[in-house]
From TrEMBL:
Superkingdom in the source lineage: Eukaryota
Keyword set, alphabetical order: Calcium, Metal-binding, Repeat
Pfam families: AIF-1
PANTHER family reported for this sequence: ALLOGRAFT INFLAMMATORY FACTOR 1-LIKE, ALLOGRAFT INFLAMMATORY FACTOR-1
Protein name: Allograft inflammatory factor 1 like
Organism, scientific name: Felis catus
Main location: membrane
Membrane topology term: Peripheral membrane protein
Keyword field contains RNA-binding: no
Occurrences of domain EF-hand (ranges): 1-26
Compartment annotation: Cell projection, Ruffle membrane
Lineage of origin: Eukaryota, Metazoa, Chordata, Craniata, Vertebrata
Gene3D superfamilies per record: EF-hand (1.10.238.10)
Region (Disordered): 73-93
Length: 93
């Protein structure tokens, strides 16, 4: 949420640039485009929340990956269109 500058639920190139600079590891635009491509498999110009979680989990956490897979199967309703609603810290699980 901190780096989703446009409140679309995804991290775009400028949001990623801000995140990397805040972490003290500035990257060029080309490096960031490559990072996004690696995370998304080259199918998107932005990193979705699910892609971000999968990237952070890596290959080490099979249990958390199963939970994410289960959550994906539980999502049977279509995704809402438009920006996500405003949320605060108290509303997070």
């Amino acid at each position: 949420m901190e780096f989703d500058l446009n409140n679309e639920g995804e991290i775009d190139l400028m949001s990623l640039k801000r995140m990397m600079e805040k972490l003290g590891v500035p990257k060029t635009h080309l490096e960031m485009k490559k990072m996004i491509s690696e995370v998304t498999g080259g199918v998107s110009d932005t990193i979705s929340y699910r892609d971000f979680v999968n990237m952070m989990l890596g290959k080490r956490s099979a249990v958390l990956k199963l939970v994410m897979m289960f959550e994906g199967k539980a999502e049977s309703s279509p995704k809402p269109v438009g920006p996500p609603p405003e949320r605060d810290i108290a509303s997070l699980p």
